[in-house]
Design a protein that fits this description.
Blueprint lengths: L11 E6 L4 H15 L8 E6 L12 E2 H6 L4 H17 L8 E2 L3 H13 L2 H16 L8 H10 L6 H9 L1 H17 L7 E5 L5 E5 L7 H13 L1
Parallel strand pairs: 1-2
Antiparallel strand pairs: 1-5, 3-4, 5-6
Helix pairs in contact: 1-5, 1-9, 4-5, 4-8, 5-6
Length: 229
């Protein structure tokens, strides 16, 4: 599924996630911090697993996220969940912003391209910036200007014409669809975030289908168990 590229360890991790999901961003940040605590030679390569929670059901102009969520949860429950989320974000030095919700298809396509064409640090930097578009900046994930700003924030020199070529590349489209289908049909992933490990023989093991790990220490324990195997 993935090649090793510049990974320090033969073990690889895939975090299946959606850029529209603030819980996915929190777990990405915690897992990344846990990886950075490891000795360099033990650090696994961290890949992106695309997963679209809302697929193509959102209109192009997007919707107000709070109004959208109010249709899924009673307001008093939603407000409580958001307050907990805001605290979790502040604990990691960030501010949660709830505004526009737009389809994340383009952002996933861009990250799939990054994982295949950039070194590990650049790809992770872009993923972090793409998560920020929705969770911290309150912008739509299908806003190409926001995607370009994310690329710039990650130190990438991508202009609008190059972005359009990436988003329109049939190879990236095919890989994106293959990865999404693989997660749903073979790995039976129905919700995110979800953590998967790929060992040095290419065997894929879904560790947690909805991790719920809410500390860096929790992910450190998970990594310790992976390394021991």
């Amino acid at each position: 599924m993935h090649n090793h590229q510049d990974a320090k360890s033969s073990t690889q991790l895939v975090v299946h996630s959606d850029f529209n999901c603030p819980y996915c961003y929190l777990e990405f940040c915690r897992l990344r911090k846990a990886i950075e605590l490891l000795p360099e030679h033990e650090r696994p390569r961290l890949w992106h697993g695309p997963f679209e929670l809302f697929e193509d059901t959102l209109p192009a102009k997007g919707v107000d996220k709070y109004d959208f969520l109010c249709k899924l949860y009673p307001k008093e429950i939603l407000d409580g969940l958001l307050e907990i989320l805001r605290k979790d974000f502040r604990d990691l030095g960030m501010e949660l912003t709830i505004r526009k919700l737009g389809n994340s298809h383009k952002a996933h396509r861009l990250q799939v391209w990054a994982d295949q064409n950039l070194d590990a640090m650049q790809a992770l930097a872009l993923k972090d910036q793409l998560f920020r578009v929705h969770s911290c900046l309150g912008k739509r994930m299908n806003d190409e200007t926001a995607l370009l700003e994310a690329a710039s924030g990650a130190g990438l020199n991508i202009d609008r014409s190059q972005l359009k070529r990436i988003l329109g590349d049939p190879k990236m489209d095919a890989r994106h669809k293959m990865m999404t289908k693989h997660a749903q049909k073979k790995l039976h992933i129905a919700t995110v975030p979800c953590l998967m490990v790929i060992d040095d023989k290419g065997k894929e093991t879904v560790l947690k289908k909805a991790t719920g790990i809410d500390t860096v220490e929790g992910f450190s324990d998970v990594l310790s168990n992976i390394i021991k195997q």
